[in-house]
Amino acid sequence: MASPKGATSLNPERVSELMARLRAVFIIAAFLLVTLVGMPLQWLFLKLHMRAARTFPHRYHRLVAALFGMHIQVIGKPVTGEGVLMVANHTSWADIVIFSAVAPLSFVAKTEVGSWPFFGTLARLQRTVFVERQRRSATGETRDEIRDRLLDGDTLLLFPEGTSHDGNRVLPFKSALLGAAEARLANGAHVKVQPVSAAFTGLYGLPMGRENRPSFAWYGDMEMVPHLWEAMLAGPLDVVVQFHEPLSLDRMDRKTLAARARKIIQGGQALALAGRA
User: Fold this and answer.
1) Number of domains in the chain
2) Most CB atoms closer than 10 Å: which of 20, 38, 228, 268?
3) By three-state DSSP, how is residue 151 classified?
């Protein structure tokens, strides 16, 4: 049937692109609204030394993950009831949302993160431990701070690769900060170190290929805000997070532990990317 005179047909690709942009605008607006409401609440919890200061970021990130369309499949369980140092592979800014959405925790991050506009404030509100990599002596100070937090019952997550990458592999682990796990709990045992693997596995419910992961993997000289916008345009993301059996310095030194943790995480990521998690 011929179109009425003067009518214009809409290009399906153009409509799809417009809908993606509208979705991205809505998500970012909702994210900013939720965050601007949540920030003063978390600040108050911290000032009053309330238990909510540890748990509120977890609830906040669960909401953010839902807003961003992150469908997270969790395998295994996190260690609870005691201080634990989690170690994980690092792919993107999205890791902060993903890991914090699946467990109440704080992060260990490079000092530069604390100076970032807006996102640095969020990091400080989540009680992040900052690492100054330029000074070798600062590593010992940070290790001591991590140890004290672990003995206080906190869950801290460390990215031992030291940088993010394309999400298709796991880089060698740096072991220096794992020395914090030499701290002993009241029962005399060393603090547990729990490997946690994450893999970006799907897009719009379909398997994600290697060529799609850079839409979410943030590394190199990529700028944060443009990459965040592109990720929102890309669509809903499927993620597999696996909590593996914890390790301990009771039976190995920190370099052996770092290598063992990397091998475990590498295996978990590979199985998830192959759809066999």
Assistant:
1) 1
2) 268
3) helix
